[in-house]
Write a structure and sequence with these properties.
It is an enzyme of class 2 (transferase). It catalyses: L-seryl-[protein] + ATP = O-phospho-L-seryl-[protein] + ADP + H(+); L-threonyl-[protein] + ATP = O-phospho-L-threonyl-[protein] + ADP + H(+). By secondary structure, this protein is an alpha+beta fold. The protein has helices at 6-14, 24-56, 61-73, 82-88, 140-143, 174-180, 220-231, 265-270, 281-300, 355-360, 365-381, 397-406, 424-437, 448-470, 513-525, and strands spanning 106-108, 117-119, 162-163, 170-171, 189-192, 196-202, 208-214, 243-249, 252-258, 305-307, 316-318, 324-326, 333-335, 342-343, 362-363, 481-483, 489-491, 494-495. It has a 7-stranded mixed β-sheet, with helices on both faces. A 3-stranded antiparallel β-sheet has the order 16-17-18, with no helix packed on it. It has a two-stranded antiparallel sheet with strand order 1-2. The longest helix is centred in the first third of the chain and has 33 residues, at 24-56. Bound molecules: adenosine-5'-triphosphate.
Length: 537
Amino acid sequence: MSFWNGGFLNNELSKKTSIFGLRLWVVIGICVGAAIVLVLFLISLCLTSRRRSPSSSPRKKPQKSLKLHLQDSTPSVSTDIPEIHHHHHQTASAAAVAAPASVADVRIDVGKADHRVVLADHHHNSHPRPPAAPPSASTTGTASGETIGTPSSMGGGGGPPEVSHLGWGHWYTLRELEEATGGLAEENVIGEGGYGIVYRGVLADNTTVAVKNLLNNRGQAEKEFKVEVEVIGRVRHKNLVRLLGYCVEGEYRMLVYEYVDNGNLEQWLHGDVGEVSPLTWDIRMNIILGTAKGLAYLHEGLEPKVVHRDVKASNILLDHHWNSKVSDFGLAKLLCSERSYVTTRVMGTFGYVAPEYASTGMLNERSDIYSFGVLIMEIISGRAPVDYTRPPGEVNLVDWLKNMVGDRKSEQVVDPRIPEKPSPKALKRALLVALRCVDPDAHKRPKMGHVIHMLEMDDLLVRDERKLGRESSSAQSSERYHHREGGGLSKRGRVLKGSASSSTVPVHCCKSRWCCTMLKLQDLLNPPCRFSSTAAF
Ligand SMILES: Nc1ncnc2c1ncn2[C@@H]1O[C@H](COP(=O)(O)OP(=O)(O)OP(=O)(O)O)[C@@H](O)[C@H]1O
């Protein structure tokens, strides 16, 4: 034990070493000191490089921090619908992306009074960029598990456009969109919805776009952004407004759409367009048909299917040929084929929301079909779904229209501003489709595909009728449409697939006023037939 006593240790430590003749304790002291200094140096190096990383490596670090922030403050899209995570796990982080170093240079004011963006740094390179590459229709970017990265041009201004890592569309820089919209100038505002302000903009390649600047709140707007980017980015259809890309910079969330140049349907139906509406009956039917095709694609052409949740007149945009394009998918929900509904917070627009969805929160595509039925009624009548300026019995469009049809006053529901009244048959066909879409029993509502068949058949019947008018004096053709038992129209006894009457209200169901109305309508539509036609069906 004496080996370890103090005297021995002192002796050993006091011995001189070969290093400059320094004593052992001095050498040990120097070594320990150097080690401490080295450790401290390494720690400080580590901290410094972390602090620098947002500017030196903009693609990685801010992405992480913002992602955490967003997840903390915003319920994930997938809280309501697990399918989103299941199918688009990576894209769910679409909005959880990097805040570039340039964010510090941007003063943000997205209040309604002044929604201009002021860029503090005006020395950026603002060379026009080359035309944007067409977005890919593929969604492999998401499927392959790529997350969105910050484009290299971000914060630097100018530079070529970045193709989104989602596999479609572009990631626009704030500067690009600021330049396109004149700094989000008031005079470029084309509309304002619940979640943001929409601006007309012209990109450097001369493409006219609509830029929606989502309001700076962390709730529904953030959610809306994610949904649009994840869900609608993959959608391509001539009757759906195309999302071209998006911008995520700092607090900004912007969506960039194709520009639809003739306003929205609400403006044309309820705006100040004079005594005679430019929307003729045929134009209105074309708008209904186009809208039906867009919705049919969402419901029946995609997996998981998309429930729009906010079908209404202001979300139907029109081009100069009166083609309709459904817009505003911010409330959309995904629904896998194996699920018949999702339960979600009730959202939508008063007057258009299906009763069963309003009362239970259970959502599926049949809710859209109800809203679509209300929309048809609005288009036919020129009346808003709920209008408190009208007498009590006429405030609610659906109720009023049902009563009018039930009382055999169908002709009186037509918008008085339509220049040329529709034929009784065309009117009744449109009314039947509308009434079936708003059937209180959601299961009895037709699917959108069926609606299209009904409407297109209407189109043919109208043409047929006109032709008949022209040939009124000519002899009847040998081909006849027969009235079928059960209501179906047929030609040479063949059941016409998808005809309005191929799925009829059972004769003995007539317990309610509603059911009687439907039966009366079907009777009206299918009288013992006096039509003759040589037109191919
Ligand atoms: N791609 C577009 N092209 C042309 N105009 C558009 C486009 N997108 C939106 N708008 C215009 O901007 C308006 C506001 O659109 P937005 O989708 O924000 O709101 P909304 O549908 O009217 O209301 P909310 O979002 O509250 O339901 C639209 O009604 C339309 O007139």
